[in-house]
């Protein structure tokens, strides 16, 4: 590895460790419980048990003042009895199935699972100060059959990046290459469907559309599927990768490290939003709603966005530390080209064959990644 690439690797890896809690390169991610004693689940004694991603809620953050938990406890009188943090969606799903939580941050697939399993209850938006400050599109994503099941928190989207010193930007070349890293989730099938070019709703695929997307993915057997973003940094810094599916934050990180990384031009891309959800078995929701209010406020979302390398759902948070993330991800017209993830088959019917169930996606995915 030449000196420039070695420097890029060291700089970008350092930034991931120091500046982005959700992307710390731990070889074997494990839940991180709070140091306080843990009572039985769903207490009504002013305590909360929380499950979230690393960087979404921390005892310490990007600065001594960015102490979500300590400040929350001090100002509300509620106590965090348990704070479990995970790094991947797989870890999140596993933990959510092991025990009940009072509040949990969930992406679209897990949110759908929790609603179906009746592990969460509807939220009263009137009890969440600042709920109306959240973009209406994000609020709609958390509404099912007229009931609100989540308070939008952080969001992001994918883009395809490439090493401009080695290859030219072409989305189909990226999918055909052995030197590409794709995100290790069945939802990546939606990105393949967009790249294939014949679909309008990437999360509502017919059997034929799904077959074509899978055919595109099956062109290459040697590609990398990543869960930890350090794999992206190492891949570009060592010259092992030409292309990658990443977020704008990782692209920015690599560019700041001196790598000649650019973004492929695509008409549409996929994104996701994580929301805070309220556990179904919470006997007294007072502290849970205080937490929802706390995490909806601009200050908390500002700190979390800067720490996690994502964009805040509350537009009022787009100042100070979060300004760069808001500019990096954009709003307005930039949002119009993002197809935000829903659990397939989205809004169409799967029972009559119009769309494919998510189980079909999850059954096929291991055939690619094994």
What's the name of the CATH homologous superfamily of the largest domain? Answer: Periplasmic binding protein-like II
Instruction: Outline the low-pLDDT stretches.
Output: 17-43
Helix content: 25-40%
CATH topology of the largest domain: D-Maltodextrin-Binding Protein, domain 2
Going by CATH, the architecture of the largest domain would be: 3-Layer(aba) Sandwich
Helical element count? 15
How many domains make up the coordinates? 2
Pairing-aware structural class of the strands and helices? alpha/beta
**Form type:** globular
Q: What is the helix/strand order?
A: HEHEHEHEHEEEEHEHHEHEHEEHHEHHEH
Main beta-sheet strand count, sense and barrel state: 8 strands, mixed
For the terminal residues, how far apart are their CA atoms?
A: 29 Å
Query: How many individual β-strands?
Result: 15
What is the CATH first-level class name of the largest domain?
Alpha Beta
Rounded mean pLDDT is: 86
User: What is the radius of gyration?
Assistant: 20 Å
